[in-house]
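Supplementary Methods S3. Complex input for the NAP-bound model.
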Amino acid sequence: MKIKKICVLGGTGFVGRHLTTRLANRGYSLRVLTRHPQRHREVAVLPGAELVEADVHNPAVLPDQFRGCDAVINLVGVLHEYSSQRFGAVHAELPGKVVDACRATGIKRLLHMSALGADAAKGPSQYLSTKGSGEQAVMAARDLAVTCFKPSIIFGPDDNFYNQFATLLKLSPILPVACPNSRFAPVYVEDVAQAFETALENDATIGHRYELCGPKVYAFKELVENVARMLGLKRLVVGLPDGLARLQGKIMGALPIKIFSTDNYLSLQVDSVCSRNGLAELGITPHSVESIMPMHFAAKRQRRRYDALRQTAGRA
Ligand SMILES: NC(=O)c1ccc[n+]([C@@H]2O[C@H](COP(=O)([O-])OP(=O)(O)OC[C@H]3O[C@@H](n4cnc5c(N)ncnc54)[C@H](OP(=O)(O)O)[C@@H]3O)[C@@H](O)[C@H]2O)c1
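Predicted complex, serialized as structure tokens:
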């Protein structure tokens, strides 16, 4: 299946930025759909890429945007629910609309981003159960050529997860962590992007789901302690007992800006580790957190020092 032009949904996010850059550099033409084109000019300037403002939830919009493309990649996902964005609409209904629009426009190839632990029936949180429904909807489309990806937590220099903990650790000598024993196998964003690229170029991946994990498994508390170590900070990371973790989700979930919620707490009730690492099946050697993030944190530190020096020099 020769793919030249790809329509990408969710191509402006953390994973999307890495994937679109990689695909543009490989010579693919891209049409990236977004709600906020003015916020994502870095995507618009990629070679062969067009950034298009579109309401992807409107079924009348998708076929127009898919026309002229050979494949679709759907990366759209949210970690928190707001009144304007419901898990069901984003994770479960949108994939169905994408399948319908592929059929309407004759596009066969679809790459779909799910999540490790996504399960329509057994997912303990709304995030995981709706992700599971979306995955079911695309994998059931046997008339299309679908590949699905299920990563553990994804890390990279511009991620939310590691950078958020880095900020919290810098602010406080003690950090409480919910569900300290939940396990993750953080996977590098470029390895995830490479998995998508490999799938696009290899028809043997059609009809398969790939779990994506990094080389090492960490308990949540250990993972946060590792961030402190990489930052060179001495911090006390305290695992919260279950009742307090649940309460933390409830209280923080009620705040207007969410960084943790009851749904996140429920997601943490299952480990995010691979039963079989799809990266190996795709011939990709996973990068470790320790080989990527210390360099990034050091570069950030240097940039801050440089900015402070410039400010001091400016005042003198
Ligand atoms: N990051 C991780 O650790 C991780 C782990 C496992 C699975 N995943 C999955 O990987 C995918 C990408 O994650 P990410 O970290 O790159 O997410 P992200 O940085 O938050 O980006 C989300 C993308 O989805 C779009 N989007 C968000 N809410 C939307 C809505 N209500 N309607 C339409 N579009 C919306 C955004 O586009 P605009 O704002 O430009 O419209 C953006 O491009 C998601 O499906 C996520 O569930 C991520």
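Residues 10-16, 34-36, 40, 56, 75-78, 85, 90, 113, 115, 151, 153-154, 161 surround NAP (CB under 6 Å). Residues 5-154+187-213+274-288 form a domain with the Rossmann fold fold (CATH 3.40.50.720).
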